[in-house]
Write a structure and sequence with these properties.
This protein has about 350 residues and is mainly beta. The chain starts with a strand and ends with a strand. It contains 1 helix and 23 strands.
């Protein structure tokens, strides 16, 4: 089994370094002169992609909840845009991951009486950074969802698939010599996810409180990565993994005036699965034994919270704005969202 390497990796392998005209080539094979390479960014990107996928689930969930809180489930169209920024810090400077992204979703609702169903399509961007490296992603999104009520019980669920084109840049160097360019790569990745949310609505006056349970699974896949343009370029094996997330909490809504509804919620979540702590098998393109690079993990325990307001702008048209945050395990991811719905 390949040895584990945490974040930065020091590997014994031959490295050919061109030192200029007349000096020829030097071959380094000892660890003291080996390439010092931080390949953790390539692994940690999957954690950033999970944060991004959470925004898709939250956007669809919020749309369905606003319809329920407003008492309307007519046919209609809606669009939503969001931005989020995250910081995963394990008190290890080499492992710190910062990310920010945004996207837009468009959806169409169809009322079926006891339930409504919908289709979504959209696109997004994501940038993730660790010290000395970054990855940019462009993502396309498709999905379906459904929601309904049975008495005081409310439920909803959906599935989506996001496929991403990524471009990485990693600044590597040879120890003590400062030799090295920016290793770069282009590769594809994707996230297939499904979620189910259920709650029991307790009404009072102009408001309600709903204890809820939410379950989600995100299945990730990453194509092989072949870096170029550097003597310490890496080769990374294809990877597949999943993360499951369970959340239990309470959400509430209050009608302040006709067509104006405020909402807030808080919950605790737990994550498990083989990609909670992502691991890649990596090797140097110039040779040497493979090793495993450990990325920044998704927090196993976290608190999630959201707050926002929805209001009608005209007959059949409404706007919803909200904030959502996740905090725990040395990580935080915060986002804002605004949505417009047109019903007929």
């Amino acid at each position: 089994m390949p040895p584990y390497r945490h974040c930065a990796s020091r590997q014994k392998l031959p490295i050919l370094a061109a030192l200029g005209a007349g000096t020829g080539l030097l071959v380094f094979s000892s660890s003291s002169a080996a390439a010092i390479v931080d390949g953790s960014m390539l692994t940690s990107t999957r954690t950033a992609m999970l944060d991004d996928a959470r925004q898709i689930r939250a956007t669809v969930l919020r749309h369905s909840l606003v319809q329920e809180e407003g008492g309307t489930r007519d046919d209609g169209l809606w669009t939503s845009t969001w931005g989020h920024w995250g910081d995963h810090d394990r008190n290890d400077e080499a492992a710190r991951l910062r990310s920010n992204g945004g996207g837009v979703l468009g959806g169409v609702d169809r009322d079926l009486g006891e339930a409504h169903v919908g289709l979504i399509a959209g696109a997004g961007t994501l940038t993730a950074r660790t010290p000395g490296a970054d990855v940019q992603s462009k993502t396309s999104i498709v999905g379906v969802y459904a929601a309904g009520t049975h008495g005081a019980w409310h439920w909803q669920g959906g599935v989506s698939y996001s496929w991403s084109q990524l471009q990485s840049h990693r600044r590597a160097s040879v120890a003590g010599l400062g030799i090295g360019n920016t290793a770069s790569a282009r590769y594809d990745s994707g996230v297939a996810q499904a979620w189910l949310d259920g709650g029991y609505r307790i009404g009072f006056g102009r408001g309600s409180i709903t204890p809820f349970v939410n379950l989600a699974r995100a299945q990730l896949h990453q194509d092989p990565i072949h870096e170029t343009n550097d003597i310490a370029a890496l080769r990374v094996d294809a990877n597949r993994g999943h993360v499951d997330i369970g959340t239990i909490g309470v959400r509430g809504a209050m009608q302040f005036a006709d067509g104006v509804v405020g909402h807030a919620g808080v919950g605790v979540q737990q994550a498990w699965g083989d990609d909670v702590r992502p691991v890649d098998t990596q090797r140097y393109a110039s040779g040497g034994d493979p090793f495993r690079a450990i990325g920044v993990p998704t927090p196993r325990h976290a608190v999630v919270a959201d707050v926002g307001i929805a209001f009608a702008t005209s007959k059949g048209t409404s706007v919803d704005a909200s904030y959502r945050g996740m905090f725990g395990g040395g990580a935080k991811d915060q986002g804002v969202r605004i949505s417009v719905t047109v019903r007929w």
